[in-house]
Amino acid sequence: MHEGNRTEIATLGEFGLIKHLTEDIKLQNKESVYGIGDDAAVLDFSDKQVLVTTDLLMEGVHFDLVYTPLKHLGYKAAMVNFSDIYAMNGCPKQITISLALSKRFCIEDMEEFYDGVKLACQLHHVDIVGGDTTSSVTGLAISITCIGEAAKDKVVYRNGAKETDLICVSGDLGAAYMGLQLMEREKAVFQGEKEVQPDFAGKEYLLERFLKPEARKDIIENLAAAGIKPTSMMDISDGLSSELMHICSQSNAGCRVYEERIPIDYQTAVMAEEFNMNLSTCALNGGEDYELLFTVPLTDHEKVSQIKDVRIIGHITKPELGCALITRDGNELTLKAQGWNPLKE
Q1: DSSP annotation of 10
Q2: From CA 37, how far away is CA 340, in angstroms rounded?
């Protein structure tokens, strides 16, 4: 939260605040005909399919401002929406941002949040075309809607996985979850436990994965360049295990995933050991990695093997074989969706 010079939001009012935060926004996409400043934005996608995704983030449920800088929060809020568009094999083009703010927040706080959003938008060539602000009595709520596009024959759904398809994943898994565990542990420091010292040396990657995730535009571009259209795809927000089960249930299929093939970063492994947690469980169920999980036909094996930062971790089977993890010692364990369920008590 912003210390020092605070400008109360009331000094600008709602429209003043929106104008202040958005007046320097220049539209970069030809599809964005008209952005902020009228009753609605005007977009023109001519012959493309339009993709729309929306995300609601609540303080205390999805983020903790004790250890989340507002600039990082803005960046992440935008990125997780871009990630959903990439997961449809599309390209994000516009976002709208709505905020509910309590009196704790000042104009400088919102500038920081918007700086993060703008940075993410710059990197992915996305236009901010609208939004809303209102007051809140419960802290900060953020709702972002992202609009993207894809050619009609390029959209990839969750329901197209076929028997013998290869299961692929980008990047590495479990790091964001470990970053969260680390932050929660260090938060104890602020709560009067003097003997715990924050020590992030050698753990920078975990913090970055948690606080500043990157949507995998590069993977979508590399798949297109290799002439591969995945048969199904999702982004990993709730954990590999639960996302894979979504793909299998929607595709009416089963799967086999090999524990030793799941990509895990060294820092994640070290941290899991320090916390005395099962490493594979963290990688399977951690969530918030925002990597891409996708399936490709067996005939694309050669091509997909050559894509940087993509690993083949298993294959799709008949539905009656169910969803299973083949452990390092060759046992078969039924996959469980222990991923993050926001509606669970």
Answers
A1: G
A2: 38
295 neighbors 304 (Cβ within 8 angstroms): no
Q: Hey, CA dihedral for 113, 119, 120, 122, is it positive or negative?
A: positive
DSSP state of 165: P
Residue in 58, 137, 132 with CA at minimum distance from that of residue 102: 137
The two tokens of residue 117 are: 């959003």
As a whole number of angstroms, the distance between CA 41 and CA 33 comes to 8
Write the pLDDT tens digit of every residue in 214-233.
Answer: 999 999 999 999 999 999 99
Residue 9 half-sphere exposure toward CB, CA atoms < 13 A: 22
pLDDT digits (tens, 9 = 90+) for 101-144: 999 999 999 999 999 999 999 999 999 999 999 999 989 999 99
Give the residue ranges of DSSP H helices in the chain.
13-22, 70-86, 107-124, 175-190, 204-211, 217-225, 240-251, 266-274, 279-285, 301-305
Q: Which contacts (CB < 8 Å, 24+ apart) does range 300-308 have?
A: 300/166, 300/228, 301/166, 303/226, 303/227, 303/228, 304/166, 304/168, 304/226, 304/228, 306/226, 307/219, 307/222, 307/223, 307/226, 307/228, 308/222
Question: Can you read off the two tokens belonging to residue 335?
Answer: 């996959």
H/E element, 197: none
What is the Cα–Cα distance from 214 to 102, expressed in whole angstroms? 29
For residues 288 and 139, the answer to whether their CB atoms sit within 8 Å is no
How confident is the model over 41-53, as pLDDT tens digits? 999 998 899 999 9
Please give the C-alpha separations between residue 29 and each of 34, 123, 125, 190, 296, in angstroms, as whole numbers: 10, 13, 7, 44, 31
Question: Structure pTM?
Answer: 0.93
